[in-house]
Amino acid sequence: MLENLKEQAPDKIIELIGLYAADERADKLDLGVGVYKDAAGNTPVMRAVKAAEARLLAEQDSKKYVGLLGDLSYVDAIRDLVLGDAVPAERVCGAQEPGGTGAIRQLFELIRVANAGATVWISDPSWPNHEAILKALGMKIGKYRYFDAATCGVDFVGMKADLEAAQAGDVLLLHGCCHNPTGANITAAEWAEVTELALARGLMPMIDIAYQGFGDGLEADAAGVRLMAAKVPEMLIAASCSKNFGLYRDRVGAALIISKDAAGTALSKANIATLNRLNFSFPPDHGAKVVSIIMNDATLRADWAAELEEMRLNMLDLRQGLAEALRRETNSDRFDFIAEHRGMFSRLGLSPEQVMKLRADHAVYMVGDSRINVAGLPKDGLDKLAKAIASVI
């Protein structure tokens, strides 16, 4: 039987990890993998996480199963973090999921159960796993223009034009903030316009918010999502704690479902619980409990928010520094957009050949579409990197 399996195309980012590890050059630079790094190149455990884990170790007296929906105090905390008071609590149900990816998968499954014929519209480009999961589930995929390669900004006119083909009952997948892979975000006014478009065309919004706090701040990064949530009758949200709590390996995510009324909330809750049971039964507890402890302790929450702000400002400094270094090296404003983008990633607008030349000649590793992890930039090596980039364009 197993001989009938087909070879699978390797994930480009996972493949890049292997190539980087095999490179023996001492001055190699990893700008591919999406994890936050400090000035020493490490991905630290956040202070509040350490403190919460110590408390959990001292106080937890059982490892029995949590419920199918996971730790509901954690789910409530994520609901409040993402939505604030934009939607009455009785219209929102949620489930703990194994990471943001798990939340996306479960919500796609929920869409398939609710409307198997729905097309899920994703940005072009989008996080590659969006399309990969949809294909694995056999779901219909539509794409809307998003990134303008010439300006390295959002092609909002093209986005609206492409969404004219969306039908009532289709799903519109949006990045809540810090668009991956481009770093280019729609504005507050554009969020309002997209909201009206979704209402007019009868589209169900689905939000992937994996970087809240990495862009313009915790509240600002959720502003567009909240604006939309307050106006639409239904919405799906996949949230992740990998980045803003640094809990990458603990797989901490949440699926939030906004329904029209309390009856819809009860039905959605029953269905997401069933999907959890079918896929993994009970979600892992440790990371979610850590988040719950932090979010329900004023001192820990304040320390977490302060450290997260330090991380955000560090990435903004790196963005500004690289943009300035590239301006000096290229004697142009071609790369000024890097300072305007937000979040962990930006797409530089280099060709695959230029990306390969950077790797071969300068040991600089980035994804083939020229997406870089801004948090991986070396603060004391920006001029050297700018020289390398200028040499291949």
List keywords for this structure.
single chain; 393 residues; alpha/beta; Aspartate Aminotransferase, domain 1; Aspartate Aminotransferase, domain 2; 7-stranded mixed beta sheet; two-stranded parallel ribbon; 14 helices; 13 strands; 15% strand; globular
Order of helices and strands: HEHHEHEHEEEHEHEHEEHHHHEHEEH
In CATH, the topology of the largest domain is named Aspartate Aminotransferase, domain 2
Q: Percent of residues in helical segments?
A: 40-55%
Strand order of the largest sheet: 2-10-9-8-7-3-4
Report low-confidence residues grouped into runs of 5 or more: none
* Backbone structural class: alpha/beta
Major sheet attributes: 7 strands, mixed
Strand content: 5-15%
CATH superfamily of the largest domain, by name, is Type I PLP-dependent aspartate aminotransferase-like (Major domain)
Number of helices: 14
Round the mean pLDDT to the nearest integer and report it: 95
The CA-CA distance between the termini, in Å, is 50 Å
Counted up, domains total: 2
Can you count the beta strands? 13
Shape-level CATH architecture of the largest domain: 3-Layer(aba) Sandwich
CATH class of the largest domain: Alpha Beta
Shape: globular
How large, in whole angstroms, is the Cα Rg? 21 Å
